[in-house]
Amino acid sequence: MSGHEPPATVTPASAARSSAHRPDIQGLRAIAVIVVIAFHAGLPLPGGFVGVDVFFAISGFVITAMLAREWARTGTINLRQFYLRRFRRLTPALVVMLGVVMVATSLLLDPFGVQQVAAQTALGAVALCANVVIALISGDYFAIDAEANPLLHTWSLSVEEQFYLIFPALLVLGWWLGRRFRRPGLGALGMVVLLTAASAALIRGAGFGIAAQSWTIGYYSPFNRAWEFGAGALLALVMAQVAKLPRWLALPVSLSGAGLMAISLWSINSHTPFPGKWTVAPIAAAVLLIAGGIIGPNPVTRVLGTRPMVLIGDWSYSLYLWHWPSIVVAAALWPGDVRVRQLAALVSFVPALLSYYRVEQPFRTGVLTPRQVVLRLTAMLASAALLAAACWAAADRVWRPAFLSGALPAGHPQVQQAPVDSFACHFPAISALAGNNGDCLQSVETGDPQVALLGDSHAEHLYSGLVEALPGVNVGVYSFRAPMMMGTQERLDAYLAPLAATARLRTVVISRYWTRGSLSREDEVAPLDHAVALLRAAGKNVIVTDDVPSMGRGPFACIYRVAPIVGVSACTTSALDFLAAHARYEPQLRTVVDAHPGTLLFASAPLFCDAQVCSSLKDGAALFTDDNHLTPAGSRIVAQAMMADPLVRPLLLG
């Protein structure tokens, strides 16, 4: 990330231990960037993303210590020089990365969303508000759509730049107010405490009436990240007092920090509410590790200060800039293989080091007047903004319409849902529960359903095929999209009760997004067993599908992945990868089915695979709307196979 200025000290007592260059802080930067890269590369480090939070705490310490030293020396802060140094430090490498990524995105990724999102994010990064742009267009940091954005990582750069813009002025205000009462140190300390406390309180924003989905309290928010910078800043302001602690405390403090860091990396994951109370762990770890070095040298700080660690710390900003775009582009071109992500992460060291030695360092250390710095930075930012706008316009106004119209030879796959008869279902209670997060429909306007689809969106995508295959049969779909079947046990029972009580209903087909991973007993296996048992007890036939393969990319991304220069189609994924995923969940489905005689397990997943590959295309038509949902053409394949199965067909026809 950023902030390589040396931490300052306020008293001679601590000068020797936190002066011009703290190798252990560079080593801590190395740890932070390594764990972030490892997480993004798909290595088994569930909390690796907390490395970004560690960067924030480091920046808070380094910047505050530097400003404190300037204030102690001159009695003022030259904010103009501070901002010039920050922009000179960060902007050139960022602009080069943005330019390369925009060109690569335009040539290698599809123009049906990814190019547009990347261009919008690039404009946000230039304007120092990429975090806001990403929050508005992509949502959750861990969502699949967000992970397709090659500039997703710029959110943290914008948060840090927003901190640089606002925090020094607030610190100066604190010193100025404190000086009026002859206590400038207390004034600055009070300002940072107030900022930190207000930010920490916002994490519980719902208690203040702030909507939980608001970006102002979400993952990308600068408001509830400010306390992370504040924690480092507070340490910098009390550094003189920390330096007076007994030397023997240095090792316990540093070991405590290292232990908390390990706990953070292994105990926090993408399901942990973040920012939240768990965020305290990596921030406390960073503060303790820095504080241990202030108290005195110890084995932990010596390890962090070794030459390899310091070198990686020096490269950390460039490594952070380049690793994520490399991983995203590689994963888009060769999806489904985590080794590709890991290789891309390693390869990203090449552009990162070129950027560090050819762009970052020369511009940072070159002799330039303030006017020259401003003019060059302005030209760089304007160029990046123009390139991003041009790529956005090309994707949205040229390539996308050309593909959709068929003007370009790749044509356009039929991915929209085919029109099928759909009417409001006869179960108002289910309809109310489904709301906007599910469906409650049937194919014949009057009468109760004869065949029901039950599950989530993977039940919904079978609806068009079954309606087409069963003319005159009233097919109903009853879905709710949630990690657990129907969201809760109570909601599941509310769905099952009217279905079980409907005399005309003869067969229920249960289909869920099983392929998202190994099935948990609580969220998937037990609710499925409960549903099958209740429906069988009510005399209903039950068919459980084994879902469809997860393709790793949608149809546009595969058909137009090199657009428009080379019309390469790569709409397949390895059958071996599919079989490995299938083997993680299919036995659990079979166990439930076998426990209830008369229940069938229908193998829908192999319909899209041969011995070598699984394909999302057939005869030029797209079978998937995204990486795991079927088009009407794909739904038709499953329905026709069900009608051709001698065990399934009678259950559907009655």
**Strand order in the sheet with the most strands:** 1-2-4-3-5-6-8
Stretches where pLDDT is under 50 for at least 5 consecutive residues are 2-20, 409-417, 561-569
Helix residue percentage: 55-70%
Shape: elongated
For the secondary structure, the number of strands is 11
> What is the subunit arrangement here?
single chain
Radius of gyration: 29 Å
Described by strand count, sense and barrel closure, the largest sheet is: 7 strands, mixed
Average pLDDT, all residues: 85
Structural class: mainly alpha
How much of the sequence is in beta strands?
A: 5-15%
Write the layout of secondary structure elements.
Blueprint: H1 12-15, H2 23-40, H3 51-74, H4 79-108, H5 114-126, H6 130-137, H7 144-147, H8 154-180, H9 184-202, H10 226-237, H11 239-243, H12 250-267, H13 280-295, H14 299-304, H15 307-333, H16 338-347, H17 349-365, H18 370-405, E1 423-424, H19 428-434, E2 440-442, E3 451-455, H20 457-460, H21 463-469, E4 475-479, H22 489-501, E5 507-511, H23 521-537, E6 541-545, H24 555-559, E7 572-574, H25 575-594, E8 600-602, E9 613-615, E10 617-618, E11 621-622, H26 632-644, H27 649-653
Parallel strand pairs: 3-4, 3-5, 5-6, 6-8
Antiparallel strand pairs: 1-2, 2-4, 7-9, 10-11
